[in-house]
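Before going further, learn to read the protein records used in this course. A complete example follows; check for yourself that the lines match position by position.
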Amino acid sequence: MRLRRPRLPRTRTGQRRLVQAVMAGCVLALLPATWMYVVTGDRLRTTADVPRTEVAVVFGAGLWDGEPSPYLAHRLDAAAKLYREQKIKVVLVTGDNSREDYDEPDAMRAYLTRHGVPDARIVSDYAGFDTWDSCVRAKKIFGVDKAVLISQGFHIRRAVALCEAAGVTSYGVGVDAKHDVTWYYGGTREIFAAGKAALDAVFEPDPRFLGPKEPGVREALASGR
């Protein structure tokens, strides 16, 4: 069966309405991204000028054969640098541990300890299944009120916007990344993820897993350097 091609309006009124509908759709599609840029306008920093903050949050970005992917390694390198420069005291690593054979937080912890961050200064969130979940859990489970967020540039605005919506005063550090296929995929994905982020900020859904409060961040801050 042959599919019939959609017919464009033949009258000027119909054509005008079609153009208006397309323009309205474009505006609606861009609203979430515009919201993110407005919310995060003065919140983006580099490792050189980010304010001293007790806690840094590093978001998971995948594992390769059980080790942090290059993108995740760049995030962890930035966190280790901030710790060495005494700009942060504790690193909260948040990622996916939904399967027994996939453990982002433990891989992130092991990488950080190899790069000079003491194990006692690392706190693991094993239920950071997406950015919103990580932000809400940082606030409600780990008691984080203010944090430096570390991710790639294409993701950091969404992370800051969502953590601000979750009640975490945030500064974002977007680390450099090679503009390869993964980078372009990530940038394209953010266009669609912005819509979900706006809905999360408005409706504030509970994370997939919340659970009881955990004292890890408080205890890590109380421990000696």
The mean pLDDT is 86. The longest helix spans residues 12-39.
